[in-house]
Amino acid sequence: MVEARVAQLTGVYAASALGRGADAQLAGVLAGVPAFGPVGRFDTAARRVTVAATLPEVGPLPDELADAVDSACRAAGLDRAQRAGCALLLAVHGGPAAGPAPAVLAGQLAARCGLSGHTRVYTSACVSASTAVADAAAQITRGDVERVVVAAGYLVEPDQFALFDAGRALAADGAVRPFSAGRRGLLLGDGVAAVVLESSAGHRRGAEPLATVAGWGRAGDAFHPCQPEPGGVGLARAVDGALRRAGLPPQAVGYVNANATGTAQSDAAEAAALRRALGGHAARVPVSSTKSVHGHALEASGLLELVVTALALRHGELPVNAGWRGPDDSCPLNVVTGHPQKTETTHALTLNAAFGGANTALLVGVG
Amino acid sequence: MIAPHTPRSCTFCPDESHKPPGTTTETARAPGERAGERARAAWPEGGDAGGSAPGVPGFVHSDFAPVVVAVAERCLRRGYGSAGVPAGVRTAIVLVTASGDLASAQHVRATVEAGGRIGPLFFFQSVPNSVAGHLTARWDLRGPVVCLSPTGDPYADGVAEADLLRDDGDADEVLLILIEQAPDRPTEAVAVLLGGGARP
Questions:
Q1: Is A355 exposed, middle or buried (0-12, 13-18, 19+ CB in 10 A)?
Q2: Which site among A221, A226, A235 would you substitute to test the B interface, given the most B Cβ atoms closer than 10 Å to its Cβ?
Q3: What confidence score (pLDDT) does residue B50 get?
Q4: In B, residues 77-96, which contact A (CB 8 Å cutoff)?
């Protein structure tokens, strides 16, 4: 009998305001200390909100991405020869950019890092990276490719900051409070991440994979250009898809790293989606949103959050939902507050949602 | 200008002029022959000459969203008539654009550089997902929303993503939209409805 192909995470890297590298991300989300502070990278004098979670010293995005891909490949034990033929899926902001255009960036990144397989650039806002991971897992499990690098990057810059400020999406109190009473919005954060996904059939180097992408789902709300469907129908269907592909019941989910941005209606819609998809288990499963400490990395958020979810699951402690002020009736969930929570669970969901009613769910497995 | 039934003049199709007569590729076939295409539309088409795409509520300053909506709804009407997409069919949107909403992005850049404040509507239209959300709401399209910046031939990139979404099971059919905006020529777009019948 032929063993089913599984998409394994064999190497990961991330940088955020929590620090550089996988260890810094894990330590940061477990410490639960928000990394927000005054933006020094550009002038915010004309803005309503002036804080974000930024790395103190950061290079140009192409250099940061190249470092991330190299680091993830090294973590996976891939030498230059093993990188050849490897596909690159890149998630970045689309349209005109201060640096190279997205397609040029992908080509340069692939060349710098020795990846000669196909490239694809995702510009689907806050589900860009998670869609890329879902696509990579699909390509691996159906046997199209043996190995894919997914990379994503967003560094807080003046144009998006000004847009989010103009849309009154940023938390005026300088804190992100997912699912909490008194939440007032999101805050932006740097995020650069890369992961190596490999087929279980082709991974034969001896190093133990960090985790598997056991399931994934993508679905639309059909509701509004920029507001989530209040009942969470689209996000619930994405979770359904992830569970179905993994062949697992809702009760197998032992943690949810929620999309929760700290926005009133979005967090409530996500809570509704969890109730719809997980039933009564939604009130019991531990939930937190690591955006409360590293901020919202927009196109890169899905990959940064996949990395911290996999690391936390493997470590056996669940990240704190920072900024908590108390329960909100619209979000009846078991939110991890105060201290990290010990766990022996083997599966966790990481969720993302974006403008356009785009939703993704990734189900991570360990052990 | 895109002529919808003459692919060799299409912005979104590869230049085939160097090929000998009689040779074809996937993207150079007549639209009706292309595998999996159930409907196709372009902006502009013959009757649109010199006209503007109708405005879209909530979207300002740029014709990016109006052209996306015009070409997509033209394609959906050709595919489904007035009945709309049947209940239970999960239609994904794959929007492929290198330029994105160039006019809006340039306005934002100039305003920020001048130290000014941006109108709040620009926040809502700052990513291509937003106009896709407008379409999904109007047409009850419940499949995934995916936006790509093409790394090769835009049509081939979009079809590859559409095939993946359908084969992987998250979409029954895909509305593929290709659009480019440039400062020195009219905005052009093509939309095709892929799948929903026999798989290519």
A1: buried
A2: A226
A3: 80
A4: 90, 92-93
> What are the chain A neighbours of B90 within 8 Å (beta carbons)?
219
Q: For A220, which of B101, B143, B161 is closest by C-beta distance?
A: B143
Residues 6 or more apart whose CB falls under 8 angstroms from that of A100 comprise: A62, A108
Chain B, nearest residue to A215 by Cα? B168
* The dihedral formed by the CA atoms of B170, A305, A213 and A341, expressed in degrees to the nearest 10: -120
Beta bridge partners, B179, equal B189
> What DSSP line would sit under A154-201, residue for residue?
E---HHHHHHHHHTT-B-TTS---TTBTT---B-BB-EEEEEEEEETT
- Identify the CA nearest to A209 among candidates A37, A364, A47, A320: A364
Angle A104-B59-B44 (CA atoms, 0-180°, nearest 5)?
A: 70
Separation CA A33–CA A249 (nearest Å) = 33
B4 has pLDDT over 70:
no
Of B128, B136, B157, the CB nearest to A221: B136
ipTM of the complex as predicted: 0.97
Residue from B90, B106, B112, B118 to probe the interface with A (highest A Cβ count within 10 Å):
B112
Q: For the segment B50-78, what is each residue's pLDDT rounded down to a tens digit?
A: 889 999 999 999 999 999 999 999 999 99
Asked whether the beta carbons of residue B151 and residue A106 sit closer than 8 angstroms, the reply is yes
Report d(CA A267, CA A230) in Å as an integer: 9
Which residue shows structure tokens 């890092």? Answer: A113
The position carrying tokens 């007549």 is B30
Closest listed residue to residue A90, CA positions, set A127, A123, A126, A125:
A123
> Under an 8 A CB cutoff, do A122 and B146 touch?
yes
Residues of B in contact with A169 (CB under 8 A): 123
DSSP B8: G
